[in-house]
Amino acid sequence: MKESQPSAIYLKDYKVPPFLIDKTELTFDLDEATTIVTSRLHMRRNPAFGKSTAPLILDGGEDVKLIGVAMDDYPLPAEEYRISEDKLIITATADEFILTCETLIEPQNNTRLEGLYRSSSMFCTQCEAEGFRHITYYLDRPDVMSVFTTTIIADESRYPVMLSNGNEVERGKTDEGKTLVVWHDPFPKPAYLFALVAGDLAVKNDVFTTQSQRDITLQIFTESHNIDKVDYAMEALKRSMRWDEEAYGREYDLDVFMIVAVDDFNMGAMENKGLNIFNSSCLLASPETTTDDTYLRVEAIVAHEYFHNWSGNRVTCRDWFQLSLKEGFTVFRDQTFSADMHSATVKRVEDVSFLKTAQFAEDAGPMAHPVRPSSFIEISNFYTLTVYEKGAEIVRMIHTLLGAEKFRAGSDLYFDRHDGQAVTCDDFLAAMQDASGVDLSQFKRWYSQAGTPVVIVTDAFDEESGTYRLTMKQDTAATPAQPTKLPLHIPVRVGLLDEQGAALSATVNGIAADDHVLHLTDSEQVFEFTGLTSRPVPSLLRGFSAPVKLRYDYSAADLLLLMSADSDGFNRWSAAQQLAVNELTSLIDQAIKGDDLSIDSQLIHGYKTLLNDASLDPAMVALILALPSQAYLSELANPIYPAAIKQARQYLKTQLAGALSTDFERVYHEHKIQGAYQATAQDIAHRSLKNMALSYWLESGSELAQQTVITQFESADNMTDQFAALSIYVNSISVNSIAVNTQHSKAAELLAAFYEQWQSEPLVVNKWLMLSASQENDNALATVKTLMEHPAFDLKNPNKVRSVLGGFGQSVSGFHKADGSGYQFLADQIILLNKRNPQIASRLCTPLTRWKKLQPELSAKMKAELERILAEDLSKDVYEVVSKSLA
Ligand code: PHE
Ligand code: ZN
Q1: Is the CB of 267 under 6 A from ligand 1?
Q2: Of the residues 388, 414, 447, the one at which a domain ends
């Protein structure tokens, strides 16, 4: 452990910057050994800060070497500046001046992948949140916005493509014969949106004509062997540009929009002004190498980054506590976009499942924080599901409270009022409120209060008056640093059904309708529905109108009715999921007690009906058949018995497979698609149900099913079907329990064949790594250790680390090994990566943060590993997560 530990910074301490930087001129002399960065910063004291003689303090990093500093072109003598803890401090300055800094950096040794680094043979940058300070000394905070001019100097034979933000304004040669390119970005921006790329890249060009008839040049750059995989991203980009004009009235502003794919990247992608940089796994797509879910992900991320041009770049964040201002809003925008492009219900189900599984777990754990956090040690740790996904739910609730039209007016006002500014979540709310007249003062608490509210609903029907009463109570459990909670403004969308499942109109507050938004604002409230003749079945929280845990004691019959008849597609899924959760919860209890497992035949009947209803969207049927995941059931459980959950899921799947095997066989055949691969909602839906049916059919023990899986693996003409066949086989309980998982099993043989076929496609190899690492068998830990020695593995590449260790985390038999060796292995990797790549190391800690909820024997072992990590000399990133987990 270190002598002194890193300290937290607080939102309440925010002060405007003492200095501003009106213009930033950067020159990069790029070279494989050392890169020299020269900055000329046109600075002045900030009038808003008030009269001051405070010294100028610039942010830097331990990897930045200062060569020289000059004030108004006079070199500063050593006594007039000093470097202290990564800061460059200049004692005295005029009110207005030009500061010149020359720094030396070594991008080739940058393993953190923050600042300027190398990926394959190119140079690239990642500056959000505080990466720019690893390039040169700067006021590295988002409320300092500056107009950037960037000169790139490099050897043209190795770096023919040299890119930065904005427009290329000049190209020439230096005296030494190197090439020089100048870029100018007319829009003032914070340093976190700066980007630079240099390399030998191929490009795909296209054009988009905006609503005001301006032609925008679109360019996607990749290494040359990947350029045949960008067509889908290009089309997705054009769809995004059109959609943002239509849905939000937002037009693109520069003359060129560029995207670059890089293989080494900590996150998914980055919205740098005019020059988005993508993890290649979130951009490249081809039918042979990419699965359906990745196609959808590519489209969503291209859209997300593009949408940031307004929600993030034109209007940015005042400070990093406001991160959700841009991320929550932009996730909401990309979710709506995807819903418009495909099936809105399927998209909503996927987003909500993810939220309820992963964000709810975060909100119930030691890292729980409000959507607008009030303190942090390392901001990189706050790119969380809470800030992104719960943040998007908050914006969605505003949309529900205001209605589509007023929401659009609020968004227009927000962009109009704050264009070119760095603002806060309060500013966003104020615009929404001012444009709509809707009072959001209580609603605001959603931003500052952590934890998932529980809403408990009970009901009563008064026969005589035809009145139905819903009583709702809300409660939010304590979270770290927030012991007491206030009631939130929760919009609860409700409809009522009669016994046959028909929608009932009822009157609430004088308004008759078959769908009402109730405003739960007190800790307990009663809502009255009048004009009814018999007791209704309530359809509660339609569309998941608020990110809460809803409790209502539904009978199995109610759930079956909702599942088949509710007009709200989301709640049909939700009812089906609740039925399965109820069944699995009792199976898990039986498994914990060591009893023989058994299920209710009613459930089998429900699934049979589902499989025989041709009117249903095949994608929805597949989502229901997927059964609640191991992770979701873990979120619901307390304490968590991982092996019991696994056993319960496997048992239920096997039972359904056995009872309905002929239905699954039929459904498999019915949903085969003729013709070439297309990533359309319809085709994706058919493939998902077909492959889901195949996985059940195989579980029934049928020889023919086994043959069918192998044939599909061998003859598929697209990665979705091939990889589905492979994973179905590798994950199959029945097949592997017979074959026992030895090196010589058929599963191992298929995995080997797959690697053989795809070894030259890194993104496919990543899928192979993930599947191999997630296997359920007694060798799981040994397997993952072997994988880390495999030539395809590379500790420097975040995608590979995520594949192997992320995959391993899903293997109950590997990760949760009874002797704790799985936890020990993960802790070893975290310690190994701690200094090399703190962001990745910190993210790997997530599964360990759940230790308090685990069954006692495992909990103690997991805790011991956290303690072992804490004893190391830690990066801020890992220190924050581990110390908070143990607190
Ligand atoms: N701002 C990026 C996005 O959400 C995410 C990101 C954060 C990327 C930090 C890199 C580093 O679109
Ligand atoms: Zn984003």
Answers
A1: yes
A2: 447
At residue 92, the pLDDT reads: 84
Task: Quote the percentage of the chain above a pLDDT of 70.
Answer: 99
| Domain shared by 333 and 403, yes or no | yes
737-760: per-residue pLDDT in tens? 765 545 458 999 999 999 999 999
CA–CA distance, 415 with 400 (Å, rounded to integer): 20
- Is the CB of 317 within 6 Å of ligand 1? no
Is residue 309 in contact with ligand 1, taking CB distance under 6 Å? no
Active-site annotation holds for 670: no
For ligand 1, whether the C-beta of 112 sits within 6 Å is no
Alpha carbon 441 to its chain's center? 29
pLDDT band at 710 (very low <50, low <70, confident <90, very high): very high
Residue 712 has pLDDT above 70, yes or no: yes
Summarize pLDDT for 254-311 with one digit per residue, the tens. 999 999 999 999 999 999 999 999 999 999 999 999 999 999 999 999 999 999 999 9
How many whole angstroms from 415 Cα to the centroid of ligand 1? 21
Average pLDDT over the chain, rounded to an integer: 97
**What does the pLDDT look like over 770-823, one tens digit per residue?**
999 999 999 999 999 999 999 999 999 999 999 999 999 999 999 999 999 999
- Give the Å distance between the CA of 429 and the centre of ligand 2: 19
| 131-136 average pLDDT score | 98
Closest C-alpha among 107, 19, 97, 127 to residue 64: 107
Residue among 189, 240, 262, 270 to mutate when testing ligand 1 (max atoms within 8 A of CB): 270
> What confidence score (pLDDT) does residue 882 get?
98
**CATH number for the domain that contains residue 61:** 2.60.40.1730
- Structure confidence at residue 744 (pLDDT): 59
Q: Is residue 102 part of a domain?
A: yes
The ligand placed nearest to the CA atom of residue 267 is: 1
List own/partner pairs for 879-884 with CB under 8 A and 24 or more apart: 879/5, 879/6, 879/377, 879/378, 880/6, 880/376, 880/377, 880/378, 880/381, 880/842, 881/367, 881/381, 881/842, 881/845, 881/846, 881/849, 882/845, 882/848, 883/5, 884/366, 884/367, 884/480
- Ligand in closest contact with the CA of 325: 2
For residue 445, the CA-to-ligand 2 centroid distance in Å is 23
- Rounded to the nearest angstrom, the distance between the alpha carbon of 304 and the centre of ligand 2 is 6
Question: Which atom from ligand 1 is nearest to the alpha carbon of 129?
Answer: 9
The confidence score (pLDDT) of residue 4 equals 80
417, 439 Cβ separation under 8 angstroms: no
Q: Which domain holds residue 221?
A: 202-313
Same domain for 93 and 141: yes
Does the pLDDT value for residue 622 go beyond 50? yes
Total domain count for the chain?
A: 5
* Best mutation site among 271, 376, 843 for ligand 1 pocket (most ligand atoms within 8 Å of CB): 271
The number of beta carbons lying within 10 Å of the beta carbon of residue 321 is: 25
Q: Whose CA is nearest to atom 11 of ligand 1?
A: 128
Where would I find the H helices in 548-680?
556-565, 569-593, 601-612, 618-625, 630-636, 642-659, 661-670
